[in-house]
């Protein structure tokens, strides 16, 4: 595929869920991957007056690396730290009302993400096959769990703030 096809495929495959490559840096990433030997330029094509496009293919080393990344992702069970947990440990300078407003806004954003995800699943439903259903469900459950945690936090916030230290220094 050429770069534009790769970008479109990455959008369809939701590459942003497992990669930090943004559309604007795709060509730089392709160049780095070519230098690393995981892809190779196989030919250049030109249609009409459009610029010439380089067609890339996965090398055998690239296919092996892809399998390694897949297998590592399937085995990895490490629960990653959520930055919000650290932030909540350092809210001494925020009053309860200010913190509540932040948490309510976070919850609203997460609810919007869930709504958008469910709409995307509905739109994609005719094209979803096999295990793709489980990936949609996994994301849905993660968002629902985040919403439940935010609801619990908002419910317990007065009690939690009452027990909060009043300064960052501890004895």
Automatic annotation (TrEMBL):
Gene3D superfamilies, sorted: Winged helix-like DNA-binding domain superfamily/Winged helix DNA-binding domain
- Annotated Pfam families: PadR
InterPro entries membership: Tscrpt_reg_PadR_N (IPR005149), WH-like_DNA-bd_sf (IPR036388), WH_DNA-bd_sf (IPR036390)
Transcription regulator PadR N-terminal domain residues are 1-66
Domain of life assignment: Bacteria
Protein name per the record: Transcription regulator PadR N-terminal domain-containing protein
Q: Which organism is it from?
A: Micromonospora noduli
């Amino acid at each position: 595929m050429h770069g534009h096809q790769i970008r479109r495929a990455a959008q369809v495959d939701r590459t942003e869920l497992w990669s930090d490559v943004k559309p604007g840096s795709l060509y730089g990433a392709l160049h780095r991957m070519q230098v690393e030997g995981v892809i190779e330029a196989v030919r250049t094509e030109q249609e009409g007056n459009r610029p010439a496009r380089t067609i890339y293919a996965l090398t055998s080393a690239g296919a092996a690396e892809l399998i390694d990344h897949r297998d590592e992702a399937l085995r990895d069970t490490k629960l990653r730290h959520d930055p919000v947990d650290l932030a909540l440990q350092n809210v001494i300078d925020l009053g309860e009302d200010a913190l509540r407003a932040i948490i309510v806004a976070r919850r609203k954003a997460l609810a919007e993400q869930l709504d958008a995800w469910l709409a995307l699943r509905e739109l994609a439903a005719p094209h979803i096959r096999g295990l793709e259903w489980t990936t949609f469900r996994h994301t849905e459950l993660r968002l629902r769990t985040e919403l439940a945690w935010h609801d619990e936090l908002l419910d317990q916030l007065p009690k939690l703030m009452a027990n909060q230290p009043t300064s960052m220094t501890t004895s």
